[in-house]
């Protein structure tokens, strides 16, 4: 997609750009920066299960399993095709907590 001064993005294109930016930040091991972008995405589209999953992952990368678990559960409330990944992520957190106990 080429952009110029007259380019108007749809809401969906903005959301996809935000998600792609957050994903790139996670790949660069910058989970706190990714979390900031993902929170903005969730303000715009609170029913995006990918955003909940990625935000949970960003908190998991920061060793904040309690918040990550809550975020994964929230993602399950709005999920469709991402359900399996959210369930596995939530199980990963719960299993890690059990091993730590």
Write structural notes for this entry:
This protein has one domain: Serine Threonine Protein Phosphatase 5, Tetratricopeptide repeat. The chain is mainly alpha-helical and 101 residues long. 32% of the residues are buried. It has helices at residues 11-27, 31-44, 49-61, 65-78, 83-100. The protein starts with 10 loop residues before the first helix and ends with a helix. The model has no long low-confidence stretch (mean pLDDT 87). 75% of the residues lie in helices and 0% in strands. It has five helices and no strands. Helix 2 packs antiparallel against helix 3 (49-61) and helix 4 (65-78) runs antiparallel to helix 5.
Offer a quick outline of the entry.
The protein has 101 residues and is mainly alpha-helical. The chain has 5 helices and no strands.
How would you sum up the major sheet?
Answer: none
- The gross shape turns out to be elongated
**CATH H-tier superfamily:** Tetratricopeptide repeat domain
List low-pLDDT spans.
Answer: none
Overall strand count:
0
Can you tell me the CATH class? Mainly Alpha
Q: Would you tell me the overall average pLDDT?
A: 87
Class by SSE composition = mainly alpha
The Rg value, from CA coordinates, equals: 15 Å
Q: What is the helix tally?
A: 5
Per the CATH scheme, the topology name is: Serine Threonine Protein Phosphatase 5, Tetratricopeptide repeat
The sequence of SSEs as H and E is: HHHHH
User: How many angstroms separate the termini?
Assistant: 50 Å
**Architecture (CATH level 2) name:** Alpha Horseshoe
Total tally of structural domains = 1
| Portion in strands | under 5%
* Proportion of residues in helical segments: over 70%
């Amino acid at each position: 997609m080429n952009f110029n001064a007259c380019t108007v993005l749809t809401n969906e294109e903005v959301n996809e750009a935000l998600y792609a930016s957050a994903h790139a930040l996670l790949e660069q091991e910058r989970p706190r920066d990714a979390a900031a972008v993902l929170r903005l995405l969730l303000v715009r589209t609170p029913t995006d299960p990918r955003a909940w999953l990625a935000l949970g992952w960003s908190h998991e990368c920061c060793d904040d399993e309690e918040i990550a678990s809550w975020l994964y559960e929230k993602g399950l409330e709005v999920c469709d095709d991402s359900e399996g990944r959210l369930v596995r992520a939530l199980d990963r957190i719960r299993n890690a907590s059990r091993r730590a106990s």
